[in-house]
UniProtKB/TrEMBL annotation, chains A, B:
Its EC number is 2.7.9.1. Residues 422-501 form the PEP-utilising enzyme mobile domain. The keyword Repeat does not apply. The gene is ppdK. The active site is at H455, C830. Residues 531-868 form the PEP-utilising enzyme C-terminal domain. Residues 20-56, 65-287, 304-346 form the Pyruvate phosphate dikinase AMP/ATP-binding domain. It comes from Ferrimicrobium acidiphilum DSM 19497. This is Pyruvate, phosphate dikinase. SUPFAM superfamilies: Glutathione synthetase ATP-binding domain-like (SSF56059), Phosphoenolpyruvate/pyruvate domain (SSF51621), Phosphohistidine domain (SSF52009). GO terms for molecular function: ATP binding; kinase activity; metal ion binding; pyruvate, phosphate dikinase activity. Mg(2+) binds at E743, D767. Pfam families: PEP-utilizers, PEP-utilizers_C, PPDK_N.
Amino acid sequence: MQFVFSFDYPHEIAPMNLKHLLGGKGANLAEMTSVLELPVPHGFTISTDACRAYIDGGWPDGLTVEVDRALTELEERMGKRLGDPGDPLLVSVRSGAQFSMPGMMDTVLNLGLNDVSVEGLAAQTDDPRFAYDSYRRFIAMYARIVQGIDSMEFDRLLDAAKELAGVDSDGDIPAELLRYLVGAYKELVASETGQPFPQDPKVQIRGAIEAVFGSWNGPRAIAYREREGIDHRLGTAVNVQAMVFGNRDDNSGTGVGFTRDPATGDQGVYGDFLVNAQGEDVVAGVRMTEPLAELENHFPEVFHQLMEIFERLELHYRDMCDVEFTVEQGKLWMLQTRVGKRTGMAALRMAVAMTTDAGIKLSKEEALLRISPDHLDQMLHPQFATTKFEVLTTGLGASPGAAVGKVYFTSEAAVLAHERGEDVILVRKETSPDDVHGMLASNGVLTSRGGLVSHAAVVARGWGKPAVVGADQLIFEGGGVRVGDNLIREGDEISIDGTTGTVTLGRLPLEVAEPPEELDLLLQWADELSAGHMSVRANADSGPDAEVARRFGAKGIGLCRTEHMFLAEDRLPIVRRMILADTPADEEQALEELRVAQRQDFLQILRAMDGLPVTVRLLDPPLHEFLPDIEALLIKESNGTLTKEDEKLLEAAKTWREFNPMLGVRGVRLGVLKPGLYTMQVRALLEAAMELKRAGGDPHVEVMIPLTISKPELAYAHAWVEEALAELGADDGLDVLFGTMIETPRAALLAMEIAEVAEFFSFGTNDLTQLTYGFSRDDVEGKLMPIYLAQGLLPSNPFKVVDEEAVIELVNIAAKRGRSARPDIKLGVCGEHGGDPESIASFVKIGLDYVSCSPYRVPIARLAVAQSLVREG
Amino acid sequence: MQFVFSFDYPHEIAPMNLKHLLGGKGANLAEMTSVLELPVPHGFTISTDACRAYIDGGWPDGLTVEVDRALTELEERMGKRLGDPGDPLLVSVRSGAQFSMPGMMDTVLNLGLNDVSVEGLAAQTDDPRFAYDSYRRFIAMYARIVQGIDSMEFDRLLDAAKELAGVDSDGDIPAELLRYLVGAYKELVASETGQPFPQDPKVQIRGAIEAVFGSWNGPRAIAYREREGIDHRLGTAVNVQAMVFGNRDDNSGTGVGFTRDPATGDQGVYGDFLVNAQGEDVVAGVRMTEPLAELENHFPEVFHQLMEIFERLELHYRDMCDVEFTVEQGKLWMLQTRVGKRTGMAALRMAVAMTTDAGIKLSKEEALLRISPDHLDQMLHPQFATTKFEVLTTGLGASPGAAVGKVYFTSEAAVLAHERGEDVILVRKETSPDDVHGMLASNGVLTSRGGLVSHAAVVARGWGKPAVVGADQLIFEGGGVRVGDNLIREGDEISIDGTTGTVTLGRLPLEVAEPPEELDLLLQWADELSAGHMSVRANADSGPDAEVARRFGAKGIGLCRTEHMFLAEDRLPIVRRMILADTPADEEQALEELRVAQRQDFLQILRAMDGLPVTVRLLDPPLHEFLPDIEALLIKESNGTLTKEDEKLLEAAKTWREFNPMLGVRGVRLGVLKPGLYTMQVRALLEAAMELKRAGGDPHVEVMIPLTISKPELAYAHAWVEEALAELGADDGLDVLFGTMIETPRAALLAMEIAEVAEFFSFGTNDLTQLTYGFSRDDVEGKLMPIYLAQGLLPSNPFKVVDEEAVIELVNIAAKRGRSARPDIKLGVCGEHGGDPESIASFVKIGLDYVSCSPYRVPIARLAVAQSLVREG
């Protein structure tokens, strides 16, 4: 196996496609050198194969020979020799993995300097100060990175030298003193390592290569890969390259540039440069940079050469590139290029523009792959307009977007403040149905308890309202909230970011760019590609939600949760009357009132989705969710302050409380226990559909039963629909499908039987995940998940990305068995995985018919479906 | 298809094996007639095929012709004709299904009587009173059963006749008046049906046959089949048989008999008879019966004939039989025989005796199949010694056996009463760890909340202590408990039956027969048969439990739950100190104390099971189970009565409380979150094993991790064992296996990966069922399950009998995948299904290596394993 490849090695395929072998940096250096023939300082890449071999079994056989041969070749090409006392060759050793890991891994510059060659450098540059300053920097860098010596020691010596010289800036230390400093550095190395500082450039290079290999498994790099989901087995490549010096004189310089504006996608000249400087100086912000356009004034020829290179890069990479370049004594050197990072807006606008660009001619498929879900997220939600603030605390980002407002601790106060015209952030330990009107009145919600499916999280996401939940550092005390030393009182302003989970004091500026007009076009392309494969529906529980969903391009409603209709301020008392009813007549009366109210709700939703399918899930949550908190009632009881009403509520709360509500009397089980409830809902829905149809509309109703575990249970529920249809005389062509959620492992395994009754399945992958893992999301996501992910006990959070192993196997089994019983069965996913691009890719593979997600995720899901199909080929 | 078979029809196989076709009664009548050639009144059977055809599509084509032909044949054989005015043939029409359903279905006697033949009967018997009394009974019976007329009307007329005659007894009504009564009965029928009472015997018979068919789907019959798990599709056969009259004169009589004592299994003459009586009189208990042995004095010839028949029946059926017989004018007629019901004791003793009986020569396999799990249950637990009591209320039978004692409502009071020497029944809403010492001091436990895996149920079963849980009619009020109008106060005596869930006031006598010596022999045969297939272990958490288990024949411990060690009165404070620890040092100190204590526990258990494997499950329940009830603390808080200690406990209770504890931080998750806890347990266990080994013992330790969901998680846990072994220098041949419970669907699906780390799997089918169904047993078993079973939404309670569909599929998948990764992986089941015979049969099919159950179930499981293997062939 060959480990070392010079930048102009004749690979059989374009080196830009060899990132797995050469790393990103190495691949692009080779591409620029051998394909584009741009001015790149010569060098070579040691492959990721070598790194993996090194990690598994130490320095690989034959690698020394290959590196030596490559160094000799490099010396020949550059006409310089390593360690040469006259004109030494200096090299950089840089890591470069397949995926960019900025700042995570190590680089050593100026290798080749030693006691002899430093003099050569001084002679060549006629600048001993520069030469010795380079040498001292090299020693300190090498000692830190390769030899693991604490850099504080070197800083201490440096400070001493400045003190001796009476100067403040490193650059003002005279050459004479730098010579001593180099000596002191070398002694420090010798005393720490027991060995003199290596003088042999080859030994230096070997050390640096090993350090780069080793940095792959440094704790920062591992943590970064965990976060980004990068495979730990990839390893890094190492690039050894001849040094060029942008800081040689005023005819030199260095800069970075972008072929288009990475913020907006506009064409033009974007970037920064510095005269007489090295790359680090541009990034570090020590000196004030000049806009790249100014380069034309300093070095007109170099500027035009660079512009020409920009054009060639874009045509070649068919994308926006960023570059690093250095000018050494008037000559332009390209040090790096890559496809550049960009904002969502820029990504979108460039992708569309490049499909019409005569040179680049992106296909629609390519354009679609250029936009990431994060890009869309940025465009669709408000964000903090600044990054300059102090984080107060962090919770779970439960509903994306940022919000600012005054803090209120009760829903009543929130509503009053909202009525006064204030921006409100509702801050609660957790929310309950009693808080719904307070949440509605708020710009954002912050809770100290609960996970990503807590009441606060689910309700907020449904409304697209920013929410941070489970911020467990918040301590409620004395009518306020304490976080460490900070006390937040009612009326104080805070800002929350529901995308990142960040909370900060005070009012930060927010911004949300209007999505550019290119968005509609791109999503139209996506839909064209997805047609006949998978469509995207929305989870929407009200007419207004349904309208938003339709505006975002939803092709129907995949999940209409009827419980949210029960929680409205004017409904909850009726629901409680139903639960508390002493007689069947009282219960019937309450149900009747609910039926009238729900029929109106359904009518609004069906109208908003006229012509498109609407899947209505019958009541799912356990009844105690509609009752007040039992603990508060018990405390009242012990205080003797229960009212008559409270007494009844307490009795009901005791009757309906459960040890494990997730696994208790909910879903269709509630329908079996209280059949009147479900039949009422079915009637309300079908009546609404009939009304719309009579008014000339085109309703498509899908009745969905939650939490099914057996075919007889579903057949039992089916009878309710049949009866209601018969009662209403609604068999005159009303389009009604009957189906079930598949959210218990049993339902998945018995899908063949269940499909004999169900005309569609909607996979509730959230509950399916909870049951497959034995995870209560509320309980494990905050406490346990971070440890499990950090320790590698799970590959990813299965509530964010659907579990490819067990959960997807169950979905796949259910899909196959369901289809074997009913070939035309409609299969979908409702639940949060339906809005997650990685999960969508899994569902596309299984060939499901639709995914359904919150209205605000619909554009992302539309994109993700198309991307998955393109990637599947 | 032939529907009608005379009793001597030449079937190709022995009619006794045709119960599915002829029903139990018909098959045995045919067997007695055609094979044994016993004196059986002639007749024929209408098959279950006819019944099924009738239920599906009404009276089957051709059935009338077949019945008519059979009736003609019957007339010829008996030399009598239906409706004959001289000497009429009378017949009975009786139901007889494949499985006995006593009292559930209909019988009509004396068919063939009409206005003409009644005179013939009077002439033949020279007893007009008898003839008209028979006719009046026939009309009333027919009217009730076939025509659905309320029998109250007939009773009213009968009372009038007695009043007119001035007599008290039906039998004293003179013939003349009976003639008028018959007339009145017929008029009643005519006015109710609009038709005269049918005079044509064939019409009468057709009506009776249809009534029997119809009674198969009567509500009582359906309910019975639900309870007994009998297939609703089987249908019943109908037997039409010539009547004989045991009530003809004093040379006649009727009786029932058993070929051995059904209570003890002893050989001898058992049964009852009555002179001049009909079968009903024996059963109804109107007249005092005589012991069967007395028959010899009345009818010596008949007696010896009967004894000879008994011998032939036993040899033929190779089992104890019961019979019904009638003597008509000195001639013996056999009316029915079947393999008789028996007590557990009798079943066991007869099975063993019949293997050595030279004539019967049962094989060991046959003998094993003769004993049902219920038989063993009867023998192993105390029962109420009477059936004469009034049921106060019923809950879930959570732990079998009966107990009596005085009621105490707190554990403290229970302990004090126990110390005074009283028998105690602890009555609580539900129990918690704080109640363990109170439970220990009680003879039985009764709770008003919770299901079969509630704290009370699990702890009581573990100790073999009777318990009734979830008796939700109990209302706690004013220091007592109310059930309807009854108030139970502290110190009142009650009796509970944890097998049936029955609760009654007062002290019932209890009995438990010492298991007969034959038990050991039989179970030894069972073990011989099971060797090399499946062994039975016990769930035992302490040395004494382990000793009991070993005495019951357990081949090791399949589940030692370490949490019960944490709940002992002297341990709980240490556990709480660990949870509340402010500093790592405090926590370590508490863990250290627990380690010392647990080592002792483990040593006792390993000693009791010396030479046999002991599977120890590391701590499973969530930590809040070791803390006091949070609601009580919250109430104290609101009252301002929290102590310092309470405050800390409240804080901890808040930290560790969970929305769904079943799905929260428990099992290995706890180990990941608090590694010190698990490593402490592993160390304590391995130290105990080393100590036993050093003392010359032979410990076999199996460390079991609960609730695994992924291979890396299990590997993480494995490291604790490796470390502990290394620390203790315990690699000198200590036999330690490492494995996991498979109780999440994910673990089942990923068994291939998990088996790379696990050397054994133990299926936790209780949790696996909860997760597969999305059922919290505590929440659904009391409230929902009865409805689900009654409505047929589930075939059976999946917590009692393992779900053959989904759960067994997961076990099967896991077994296959586990073996594919590790062919010699040991596979077992711990959890209650491991003691359920039906479930054991499923596990035997999959080829698991062992089941583990509570010590008191071990004999039943040993039997069930052998029976399954015999049945599998």
